[in-house]
Inverse folding.
């Protein structure tokens, strides 16, 4: 975990589906400021972070690691893709 974001500014973690207003600050409080940090998390890291009580099981169930990897690779946020698909089918 980091004490502060690299380069003085963290990534917009709210691009991960499931990181809404309730969880937007929790990763930062735990020293997570960047997508690469989430993408690099192991199962042990997730269990330890979930045990802090700040995440309510949402890291694993929300596939935060996979979503962070997708975002790093240039894919659009899942929430935007899901919304676009729902609007197209309506």
């Amino acid at each position: 975990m980091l004490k502060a974001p690299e380069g003085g500014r963290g990534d917009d973690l709210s691009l991960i589906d499931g990181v809404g207003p309730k969880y937007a600050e929790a990763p930062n409080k735990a020293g997570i400021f960047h997508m690469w940090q989430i993408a690099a998390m192991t199962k042990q890291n997730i269990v330890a972070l979930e045990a802090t009580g700040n995440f309510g099981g949402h890291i694993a169930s929300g596939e935060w690691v996979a979503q962070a990897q997708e975002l790093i690779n240039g894919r659009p946020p899942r929430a935007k893709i899901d919304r676009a698909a729902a609007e197209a089918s309506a």
